[in-house]
Amino acid sequence: MQISGTFLAVITIVAVAVASPTSAPEHALEKRSKKCTIATAGARCRKSANTDADIVGTFAKGQVKTFGCWTLGEAVDGEAVWVRTNIDGVRCFVSDTLIVQPCVTGQTASFGLC
Fold it and tell me: Is position 11 within any domain?
């Protein structure tokens, strides 16, 4: 049985294309999440990063939550950074003014932009 040169060339190209890794753009990669402590009793977690957004739920002072990313929103006490977590699978945002620092350090947070 003889295999044609064209067939071998096509198989080689397909194998190289499948085996070659491609990298995702920087903005598509999510940095690691981080556990942070809530600093204020009754800290509200909202559907979006502003104080007019619906409240998904609240947290107790000292409660530890996992935050996955940050975004800019309404400034609270001069700080516009909000961090995203979830309550019962519903994503919500907490102003970083309600998080024990230095867990969140503004736009240089150890987790990525939402």
Answer: no
